[in-house]
Specification:
about 350 residues, alpha/beta, FAD/NAD(P)-binding domain
Length: about 350
């Protein structure tokens, strides 16, 4: 078994910021990642969606005719947009990898980062089994930080096929701009992608809003501002509507919506995007082997120093990012990751 001062599970914003902070304190760090380096924050989250949003804004502005100029023959290709988005994501990943390699081999630094690729599960409270391409490796840590992030929430009874019914992870699997799309969920993710697709002016966008207003958990003035922008972009918002069923046909999806006032509506779309939030992926770790008891939402209860509480008492296991159930923001995850390591030091 290889032993480290700090074992971090997940290389997203929380995990990576914690690893770098650990080097600052001279720690030997093992950073475990079972998917994309940088986690969902890079490949299927903040960086890719914000890059796509900026590109859509550029296209939208270029197409305006009220600023004293007019662009002719303006066109857009989804594959080229996606290529730009993925280039930005990979560039960030290589920046991160370069930092890791620097810290792994620098003779001047007491702290070291070892990147271990594979899926981790707890053996007990101090050790983990990591399934790598070369077989199982067992690692142990004086301190352990869980930064496993989250995944898109599933819609009950609606199976994601990655082609016509997708979640936010499936945006990169689309081959072209769909002619018609319905975005299921009017929270931050749903409004963001509704804005992106409507900015590009290639897609008829329907937004399914179960409440009376989009972004129902934000202040009303913010909700009204976003709703006005969506309407100006041509987004068709279905307020107080519930999804009853999506029927697959060879060439289209038939969507049946039921409204609170009792009437129903049937619309045709080509793609359905599920955007109803994100949920913890903690269960993959077998947390029970470490004596951890997740909450009903699958998250971990932490104290002000990001220590995980076991039987109500702080432990040597820490958590940061989405797995804590706190605000699902890149900046919050980074701060929690650094805070946890500072407490360990």
């Amino acid at each position: 078994m290889l032993n480290y001062d700090l074992v971090i599970i997940g290389s997203g914003p929380a995990g990576f910021s914690a690893a770098v902070r650990g080097v600052d304190f001279g720690m030997k760090v093992c950073l475990i990642e079972g998917g994309h380096l940088g986690g969902a924050g890079i490949m299927n989250g903040a960086l890719t969606s914000k890059t796509m949003y900026e590109l859509s804004q550029d296209f939208s502005i270029a197409g305006r005719v009220d600023r004293g100029y007019r662009a002719s023959a303006l066109s857009v290709d989804y594959n080229q947009v996606l290529k730009t988005v993925l280039h930005a994501a990979k560039e960030k990943q290589y920046q991160m990898r370069s930092q890791i390699e620097t810290f792994a081999h620098s003779p001047e630094s007491k702290g070291k980062i070892t990147l271990l690729r594979g899926m981790a599960t707890f053996i007990d409270a101090h050790s983990l089994s990591v399934a790598t391409k070369d077989g199982e490796q067992v690692v142990g840590g004086k301190n352990i930080l869980i930064a496993t992030g989250s995944k898109p929430r599933e819609y009950p009874g609606l199976e994601v096929d990655g082609e016509r019914i997708i979640d936010s992870n499936g945006i990169t699997s689309l081959k072209k701009f769909p002619e018609r799309i319905i975005v299921i969920g009017s929270g931050i993710i749903g409004c963001e992608f509704s804005t992106i697709f409507s900015n590009f002016k290639q897609t008829e966008v329907h937004l399914l809003d179960r409440a009376k207003r989009v972004l129902p958990y934000e202040d009303e003035d913010i909700s009204e501002y976003v709703a006005r922008n969506l309407a100006n972009n041509g987004v068709i918002t279905h307020h107080t509507a519930q999804l009853r069923e999506i029927i697959k046909h060879p060439d289209y999806l038939e969507v049946i919506l039921d409204y609170d006032d009792g009437h129903s509506k049937v619309i045709e779309v080509d793609v359905a995007l599920i955007a109803i939030g994100r949920v913890s992926t903690l269960d993959r770790l077998k947390p029970q082997n470490a004596g951890l008891k997740p909450t009903e939402r699958g998250t971990l209860e932490i104290d002000g120093s990001c220590r995980v509480l076991i039987n109500g008492k702080p432990s040597h296991i820490y958590a940061a990012g989405d797995v804590t159930g706190h605000s699902q923001l890149y900046s919050v995850a980074e701060l929690q990751g650094r805070r946890a390591v500072e407490q360990m030091a």
